[in-house]
Design brief:
Largest sheet: none
Helix content: 55-70%
Radius of gyration: 19 Å
Shape: globular
């Protein structure tokens, strides 16, 4: 009997677009990086008086980084519903309606009691969907970051 040769793909075709984006993402845009740096510097100095805009920026940036790194499951392990609600609110508020829609669909699918395996599969599908969107996510986050006033004073503990 002759040996059969098989073509083996390491990942399904649906992942190809997401992989391309993932490998080309170089991080947050300059204004976003500066605003995040200032927020983290104040936090390290003991500040706790962050505005809702600053908190929203940190949340959306952490979310974006987790999606690109394909780490939503690890990032949201025990707080998936709360994280989805927060990400939906911030995404919608900064003009990322397509992202908010994808998150809303995922939240609906994850409602109620689901197995850990289903949760992981659904979050992986969400990552692929978000990475496949033809939306300038980083540019919209950067535009939002530009609306946040710079904090000139430094806070000490």
């Amino acid at each position: 009997m002759a040996a059969k040769s098989r073509v083996h793909r390491e990942r399904p075709v649906a992942d190809d677009v997401a992989d391309c984006i993932e490998t080309t993402w170089t991080g947050h845009l300059p204004t976003t990086q500066r605003r995040l740096g200032a927020i983290f510097q104040r936090a390290a100095a003991g500040a706790g008086d962050f505005t809702s805009q600053e908190r929203a920026l940190v949340l959306i940036c952490e979310f974006r980084a987790a999606v690109v790194a394909r780490e939503l499951d690890a990032s949201w392990r025990s707080k998936t519903d709360a994280s989805l609600r927060a990400a939906i609110a911030v995404s919608g508020a900064i003009g990322l309606a397509e992202v908010a829609k994808a998150l809303t669909d995922a939240r609906r699918d994850l409602g109620g009691s689901v197995t850990p395996a289903f949760r992981r599969r659904r979050l992986k599908a969400l990552e692929r969907r978000l990475l496949g969107l033809k939306v300038p996510v980083d540019q919209r986050i950067d535009r939002f970051a530009k609306t946040i006033p710079r904090q000139i004073s430094s806070h000490t503990a």
